[in-house]
Design brief:
β13 and β14 form a beta hairpin. The protein is globular. The strands form five sheets. The chain has an eight-stranded parallel beta sheet. The protein has a seven-stranded antiparallel beta sheet with strand order 2-15-22-17-16-19-20. It has a three-stranded mixed beta sheet with strand order 1-18-21, with no helix packed on it. The longest helix is centred in the N-terminal third of the chain and has 22 residues. It is an alpha/beta fold and 528 residues long. The protein has two domains: 134 residues, no CATH class; 358 residues, Glycosidases (TIM Barrel).
Length: 528
């Protein structure tokens, strides 16, 4: 008899306890919002991950930039731009760079290595623009003008060269003014908010002066640097929080057209299972579309309807030596990143009038590029072009994005220099395999019950994949690949997009999660 009850307990009692927990769980209703269509001119490329002129058309390159048909390009891109000399197509001279970074020995070493790897002329601006003009498919060129590490006279000379080289540019010209100095991790070189707008006035005046004679100057837009997140960490950083920074910019009478923003929120979505050190990187943390709404509501409050340019965001987790860098996880990253960004760019009145100029994609600190150029001039193929092509393909396949989130999306989250106090997990729900529809739930685990009250999602069965580092799925008949070794294969570029569905998890119009702090994205992909 005892043996009988010992067998009965796990077979019946434990499931009853589990069901009882679900019964008393809070029901969180997920109401879908407005659907937004993906615009053809939405995506561009940030050039700071390219070193060398031959990346554009070289037949040795698996995914040449020309074939990707991006709608915007940015030069020189990233942190390098804050130390770039347009006159010589290279970094500013050693002495000037050392003076600027004199108390940051490690920082100087990093940039010295970059200088050694990029001799003058390797990354030429004139070749950059001529390639773009010849491709006949880009209509936006964005340039980062150095107003800190260059003297005022040098900055004006750089601006004159940019305008001269773009004299016949029929599209829009965007000038970012010293974007990277605000986001730079080397805190002592960051500008006080009171000084930065004053340094930008000369560039504004110069463009105004030339606007009557040069077509590109008439089309030029000035973008000041803007903080990406009103939740930006301040505990471990010496510079002011973003709210103070934005407020400071409004006190200056600068005639700029918009703000250049960075988003590295995806770095902090997939932190489950990582060490404490990995989880502390929360300076640019973003929690789903609700947090985006908060960011742009804050921006609108200070700047009304200025344009916004997201000049960098990551397409995959930025650490190069972790399990997240696989084709399968990259697919999830691509869907979730696109969903969050597109929804944010169109969400209600919060960001009305913004993002009309294009959207760049960047891959954060790992610097995904199309090629690597060795010091002897040899071009080394790597896997980074695959990631760019993969992300671009997902974007081209995306037809529409529908956001949804609950009433308290930021409840219980602590972000100011601390680890978020909950588990981060992503659920991918293939709602209708026949239509290639996906529902992505960000920032979720197991516990509360989410009920879909939109009839379009009430399918009798949905295949659900939970991402915790393992493979979520792979297209049938294809092999998995890692972007670390560079020998990967992207089945949704070289083969059919459709995944082979797993049948191990089937639910009926509801999913269990552990926290009300989540958001969701409904993505409809077109068939290849």
């Amino acid at each position: 008899m005892k043996k009988f009850f010992r067998c009965l307990f796990p077979a019946y009692v434990i499931p009853l306890l589990f069901l009882n927990a679900l019964i008393f769980a809070d029901d969180v209703f997920l109401t879908l919002g407005t659907s937004y269509w993906c615009r053809a001119a939405f995506l561009g490329a940030n050039d700071n991950f390219v070193r060398g002129d031959r990346y554009f058309n070289d037949p040795k390159i698996q995914f040449p930039l020309k074939d990707m048909k991006f709608r915007a390009m940015r030069y020189s891109g990233g942190t390098v731009s804050s130390y770039w000399d347009y006159q010589n197509d290279t970094f500013v001279d050693y002495d000037r760079l050392y003076d600027f970074l004199d108390s940051q020995g490690d920082a100087y070493s990093i940039f010295k290595d970059l200088i050694d790897a990029n001799p003058p002329g390797v990354f030429g601006h004139k070749r950059f623009y001529s390639d773009i003009a010849a491709a006949d498919q880009w209509f936006i060129c964005a340039y980062i003008l150095n107003v800190a590490t260059r003297t005022p006279e040098q900055s004006l000379a750089d601006l004159n060269k940019i305008i001269a080289d773009n004299a016949y540019n029929p599209g829009q010209l965007i000038i970012e003014l010293d974007n990277e100095l605000y986001f730079n991790e080397f805190k002592n070189v960051l500008w006080p908010v009171a000084e930065y707008p004053d340094a930008c006035k000369q560039a504004e005046a110069y463009i105004d002066e030339n606007s009557m004679t040069l077509e590109c100057a008439r089309n030029a837009g000035i973008a000041l640097v803007g903080a990406p997140n009103s939740l930006m960490a301040t505990k471990d950083y010496k510079y002011l929080g973003s709210t103070t920074w934005l407020a400071g910019l409004t006190n200056k009478k600068t005639q700029y057209d918009g703000l250049a923003l960075h988003d590295y929120g995806l770095d902090d979505i997939f932190i489950d299972g990582f060490s404490e050190d990995w989880q502390k990187r929360v300076a640019f943390v973003t929690y789903g579309m609700a947090a985006y709404s908060n960011i742009y509501a804050n921006m609108k409050r200070h700047f009304n309807y200025k344009s916004a340019y997201i000049t960098e965001y990551n397409t995959a987790y930025w650490k190069s030596n972790v399990f997240l860098l696989t084709a399968n996880s990259s697919f999830l990253c691509g869907l979730s990143t696109l969903g969050r960004l597109i929804a944010a760019c169109n969400y209600g009145d919060v960001i009305k009038g913004m993002f009309h100029h294009g959207l760049w994609h960047e891959s954060s600190a790992y610097r995904f590029g199309f090629v690597k150029q060795d010091t002897d001039g040899t071009i080394l193929l790597n896997c980074s072009g695959q990631i760019a092509a993969h992300f671009n393909t997902i974007y081209r396949m995306s037809q529409k994005i529908t956001p949804a989130f609950n009433n308290s999306p930021l409840a219980g989250i602590t972000v100011y220099g601390q680890t978020p106090r909950r588990t981060s997990t992503l659920f991918l729900t293939h709602t209708d395999p026949a239509r290639d529809d996906y529902l992505i739930i960000l920032e979720a685990g197991t516990g509360d019950v989410v009920k879909f009250n939109n009839p379009n999602l009430l399918y009798k069965s949905m295949a659900v994949y939970t991402y915790r580092g393992e493979e979520v799925w792979k297209p049938e008949g294809t092999k998995s690949w890692s972007m670390i070794d560079g020998n990967g294969y992207i089945p949704w570029i070289d083969g059919p997009m459709r995944p082979a569905l797993k049948e191990s998890v089937l639910l009926e119009s509801q999913i269990s999660i552990d926290s009300p702090a989540f958001s969701a994205i409904f993505v409809h992909l077109s068939k290849q």
